[in-house]
Structure formats: structure tokens, C-alpha cells
Amino acid sequence: MTADQGGGSNNVEIEPSEGLRIFGAVLKSLRELAGLTQEEFARLVGYSPAYIAKIEQGKRFPPSELPERAEEALGAHGRKVLAAAARSLTRRPGLAHRFQEWAGIEEDAISLYAYECRAVPGMLQPEAYIRALFDSTPPPLSEEQIQHYVTARLDRQQLISTRVNTEFIFIIEQSVIERRIGGRKVTTQVIDHLLEVGTRRNVEIQVMPTVREDHCGVGGPMYLAETPTCQWLGCTWPRRLPASGSATRKVSGRATCSPHQKT
Length: 263
Fold this sequence. Notes:
Blueprint: H1 18-33, H2 38-45, H3 49-56, H4 66-69, H5 71-90, H6 95-108, E1 111-116, H7 127-135, H8 143-156, H9 158-162, E2 167-173, H10 174-178, H11 184-197, E3 203-208, E4 222-226, E5 232-235, H12 248-261
Parallel strand pairs: 1-2, 2-3
Antiparallel strand pairs: 1-4, 4-5
Helix pairs in contact: 1-5, 2-3, 7-8
């Protein structure tokens, strides 16, 4: 199964992999050997305690710069051990791992922009809509599996209420709502939910008209995040993957494009 920030019909949140559990255990051991709490370590490396906790639990892919940032807290030897553990993860490519890295970026971002043309963004999906997506996903899932993924997705949505100083901007294609996934009743719940979430001070939801002569979203769904250091990161599915650094130009172009879409 693949993972998806937007929560398209054939994408689901994933369970922690064995590799991520091992990396998390290594990080936890090194941190404890250094005599640091999660809160103390998080402050030294510049991430939130919640993000560090999920990395240690194997629920988030560690950011590539974590070993370097951790040298002050763990020492040169700790940095080398952590870097070696991280390299073992990079040898296992896959969208699921890249999604986990993006999920971590989400949790530390000060601004999040999402454009979706396939399905309502995962952050905005009511439970009935999530179930309707999974019910139409081949191969069929058991009720236990569906409940697991529903719970995971609803848990991720808590970011909107807990990160009150983070700006969330969603742009959804009108056709996504008119598609009526799950039927008229579910669609009514989706609309009511969008209206409710849209009343929050840190949330802006816009619907892109189906007829639009000037449209820079023809490349597909896009997600942009502004980090606490004012760096912009971008992630798109399925053709492109999380980008930063060498892909700055591409990310910058999408960051410029996103406000234009809102006009």
C-alpha cells in the first residue's frame, strides 16, 4: 500500500517499518546515553518534541539533516552512528518512506499549502469520506485495516487544532466535491465539515472553479510547507517526490504559483 498526504482513493497511511523502528531505537539509545530528555534533545536539534517522539517510535522518517544537527547533543561518535543508521534507510526507496518524511515536515511547518484535484485533502476528510475512499480501494481491505487507517488519518488531522500558529491553506478543485464519493449523504457531510473547519482562524479553504482558463495546477496535486527557518519544501504525487536543496528552483516556482491560484 502506498501513502498519500492528500488521501487519494488508492492511498493510505502506513504502519511503521522495521527499519524505521530500528532507527528510532538507535536514536533513543543515543539520546538516553547522552542523558537528555526528548524535550532537551528536540531543543538542541531544532525540532519539536512530538516530532522526535514519533521518530523514536518509528512513525516518522528522519530528516536527512538530523545526524548533523545531533552532533552537538550526541557527540561526533553519536553523529556517525546515527548517520550510518540513516543511510540504511535511504537504501530502501519507496513512496511510503518519503511520505513519512513529509509527515514530519508537516508537524514542524509554520505554513502549509495544499492543492488537490483528486480527492479532498486528508487533513479535511470526515470519517465517512475516509471510509468511502477505502471501500473503493483495490484490493479489498478488512474492517480492521480500514479502522486502523481511519484512526491514523483522523489523528493526523489534529494538527489543525493543535498547531494554532500554523497557517493551513487548502485549494480544492470543484470537481472533487461534485464527484460525490460515497454518495449524496457523505458529500453533504464533507461540505458541512469544510465549512466548519474553515471557520478556524488558522485555516483558509478555497474551491477552484471547474472552468478556469488560467490554471497553474495542471501538473497535479501539490503540497508546500514553510519551515521554522523560512525554507520552502514541496511535495507532489505521483510523479515527483519531496524536494529541497538542489530542487530549490522547482519548489520556488510552485511557491510562487500557489498564491496565484488563490486569485
